[in-house]
Design brief:
mainly beta; Immunoglobulin-like; Thrombin, subunit H; 3 domains
Length: 275
């Protein structure tokens, strides 16, 4: 049986709203047994609600791009519906609306960071680690509530089926890497850490995996600090630990057409000066 645990809608710009939801599944069912639909109502909590997205399989977020024509005095209410494929049994969230629009200064700050990263950022793929949903059928011990073995190719050592949500692409700006060497009687271990910042979207959390598209260097998120303006997120500062190539995270593959992603070469900026 599926149960919705969290759901919300947020936005920092007037062009779209981001809808997020989380679920728990028990009774031996799997996540892919359900399709999700996003419904919207205009200015009326009771409805009627119109389906604007779906069926969505294995996805827990939706960006509603059709909000620009609406004026500020019109409130948009949302629901998320889950439909079981086998018998069309469905369950819905309670109606919810945006958590609060950002002011013009917040939008200007966020737009500035977006433009900066579009011109100077490195292309990356973000895998958001699962923290909810069906447990892994291969390695998860339901009695001890832990993995029976590591290096699982089904959940990638997360304990949840699939391991990560569908990947997103973004751009980041990193600071120089820090190398820490650990010497043993047999070899020398190189621990590489760095920090980077990226825009407010997509959100990054502890345990997420970030892949640099050009080099395929993979990083594990170890810490996240978020810059805010009047309690609205404008930028994310992320601490990263480089993943050894022998770890299971290097088995992650992106179902993306990377040929369509435009790579921005590093630019040489010459400061203006007087002759």
């Amino acid at each position: 049986m599926l149960t919705f645990t969290k759901y919300r809608s947020i936005s920092l710009v007037q062009d779209f709203l981001d809808i997020f939801w989380e679920v728990t599944i028990d009774g031996g069912e799997a996540e892919l047994d359900y399709d999700f639909y996003v419904l919207r109502s205009e200015n009326n909590l009771e409805g009627p609600y119109k389906v604007i997205a779906g069926p969505l399989s294995g996805l827990y977020t939706f960006r509603d791009p059709d909000v620009f024509p609406y004026k500020r005095n019109i409130r948009l209410f949302y629901k998320v519906r889950a439909v079981r494929k086998s018998d069309n049994y469905d369950i819905e969230t309670e109606p919810f609306d945006i958590e609060g629009p950002a002011d013009l200064q917040t939008r200007a700050i966020s737009d500035f960071h977006d433009v900066l990263l579009d011109n100077m950022g490195v292309g990356i793929i973000i895998y958001n680690r699962k923290s909810f949903g069906a447990r892994c059928a291969e390695c998860w011990d339901s009695i001890k509530h832990q993995q029976r073995f590591s290096h699982c190719k089904t959940c990638y050592d997360t304990g949840y089926a699939g391991g990560y949500l569908p990947p997103n692409t973004a751009r980041m700006r990193a600071v120089p890497e820090q190398h820490q060497y650990t010497f043993t009687s047999q070899n020398k271990a190189d621990v590489v850490e760095t920090q980077m910042y990226l825009s407010r979207y997509p959100p990054v959390n502890l345990g997420d995996v970030i892949v640099e598209i050009k080099s395929n260097i993979r990083w594990k998120v170890r810490g996240v600090a978020k810059s805010e303006h009047i309690r609205h997120i404008t930028m994310q500062h992320v601490g990263l630990h480089q993943i050894p190539e022998s770890d299971i995270e290097y088995q992650l593959t992106a179902d993306l057409d990377l040929s369509k992603i435009v790579y921005e070469e590093e630019r040489i900026h010459t400061n203006p000066h007087s002759i």
